[in-house]
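Here is an idea for our session: we take a single protein and study its fold together. Start from the sequence, derive the backbone structure tokens from it, and show both lines together. Once you have written the record down, we can walk along the chain together:
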Amino acid sequence: MKKILLFLFSLFFSLGIQAIERKVKEAIPNPDLQKKVWDAMWITCPGVSLLDYGVYHFRKTFDLEAVPESFVVNVSADNRYRLYVNGESVCYGPARGDLMHWYYETVDIAPLLKSGRNVISALVWNAANYKPGAQISLNTGFILQGNTEKEFIVNTNDSWKVINDKAYSPSPDNRQDTGCADRIDGLIYPWGWETMNYDDSNWLKAIMISRALPYGLGTGYNWVLCPRDIPLMEDKPLRMKTIRRTNGIQVTDTFLQGKTSVTIPANKKVSFLIDQTFLTNAYPMLTVSGGKGSEILIRYAEAMKKDGQKANRNDVNEREITGWVDKFYPDGGSNRLFSSLWFRTYRYVEVDITTKEEPLKLLDFYSMYTAYPFKENGSFVSDEADLSKIWEVGWRTARLCANETYFDCPYYEQLMYVGDTRIQALISLYVSGDDRLMRKAIKMFDYSRTYEGITASRYPSHVAQYIPPFSLYWINMVHDYWMYRDDPIFVKSCLPGVLSVLEWFKDKIDARTGVLGHLPHWNFIDWPKEWPWDNNLPLGGTHRATIDGGSAIISLQYAYAIKDAIDLLNAFGETYLAERYKQLGASISNHIWNDCWNESKQLLADDLQGSSYSQHVNIMGILSDAVPQNKQVEVFNRLDTDPSLIQATFYYRFYLFRALKKVGLAERYVSMLQPWKDMINIGLTTFAENPEPTRSDCHAWSASPCIDFLATICGVEPAEPGFKSVKVEPHLGTLKRIKGNVPHPKGLINVVLEQKGDNLKGEIILPAGLSGTFKWFGNKKALCEGINDINVSKK
């Protein structure tokens, strides 16, 4: 059995219990659980609406003669839960999915058990109308199933007890996509509810609402249970860094370091501003004593603002904080630990406190960082220090945008969009090598396809949204996975979805023009200022031709996706279909070339009418080969130097750099990184959604340098599907020295190179069982496992 040691901490309320490191083992679910109806029942709280907002505590006490070597349970809930054993936090979830793919976690709780009486308990909540955009829900429910007969003693049924905790209420501060902040009244909170000695005699008997069903065993389904396919999230203590300003009280950094406490006298109103110094995702952990009747407001923000505008992110002078506010009301007890139901994203935290007749003592305030447990196995350093900072900020950006799904941004949406996710997944492969979240993302988007055939633009999501070009990027994403991972069964399972998307677009071709006509839904391309939002039309980040017909940009993106689809179809024996789509792609490209090429400008127009010109259409012209190969270098030089063209923003520069490499100009890459340096120079600690003024300060699509430092500068890419061999074609540009590590399924690929004049020296180390080819300015050298010396000159 595969066992992963996880260090989890108590994240929620307890009486006199601090966050203590525990060893809890993630376990493998019994395969029989996917073959039969579970013995455990879905349970809930009696006397409440199962569709409305509510927070519930469940408990089950049981006796053990001795501590078992293992005690494995499978657990899930709607919307979410946190599981405790004898007062200690075990795990939380479920990992986000949909009703036909409702995940459960499997953990071995034996390390927390003892001989004699034990208690297993769960905090379960249904955010109802306040739930985040990515949260799909049926109704309030909780289930726990023992892995084998010896654990059936804890199966959920009417032997469990439950209460509806009225201490919680949703804050009026809420957003459609990220849910609501929390309001928690300590006066009525059942302190110590998760511990063994708590008196639950007044709790209600849980009611059973349905049997638990895996796929294929029901005549009707509620939640179709599936084993979790990603690891549990990383959780670790994170100290807040520094106090930037105070009002009405003196608070120093020693409080944030956990070395001193702070007492606020009775009948006082005070505040203090904390600067984490970098953006993060974390659960706030505030421990207080006394202060009955006090109000504690905790506000979180990416950046400080003046007149609603951001500036240098390090600046707090004459600036205010706006954003999420959690509200906590102490009951006057000792060592009360307050936190939030869901993590918060912040760089700045402001604490506003109003006391009544009793002083309030702040004992400690820190946070619990949370993220998908990616490890930074890849690395990049060079003789230019700025690039190391770009790497650091880029990887932080990618980590904050990866949790139980990828996020477009953690502060505003927390939704997994295809366009963002393709880039995020490649970052994951190059920096971590962990492909599990990428694989889950590909599956989730495949699950999202409706009767139309295209994928949803974002999924899971309880508000349907369709961005047809993102379905094309899903095809590219499947192709990426095929190139980087030797997993043919999984890739083949995606082919029906690939064909479905291709056919949807094929049906939209206008027979008169040979290119795409009117396209329904929102056909987002990028966020240049020339394509502003229009609330009355599905416009914003896109060209009017996506509605009127004749969009050269989307037509060429379709041709670009067809190229990747052809590779997949040929690889799996669908040669007839591959040839059919090859002809279609060529036809689209020829029509665009004939009807959109402006001979005087030597550029492609954005539409058949020639109404505008952008970098975007010419980038796609190169990537799709609609622009003849003998003209591609010339076109790229023109699109890269003509400021009159609609310019690609951070997102679409990923495709700009794909075109740069395709035309053989990747030596320029290092000199094209000024936009990322500019973000760092204004105090950003993650990369933003757009050039200033930007909404989101953290958007993973802008972290693409983490790919290109390794794939372009170091030049490490798969030479064939499944990454069965490697191509190393470095492009140092103005750099003198580079060193990079790239994770590969067989081990690390290490590249160490030094450039002096026309000479390049160094070594490339490949893991056992991997071979490949080195290329540089006409030089070509076979690479074998182990150390490969490099000593070449430009020809």
User: Anything to note?
Assistant: Residues 1-22 have pLDDT under 50 and may be disordered. The longest strand covers residues 269-290. The chain has 15 helices and 37 strands. Residues 117 and 453 are 54 Å apart (CA to CA).
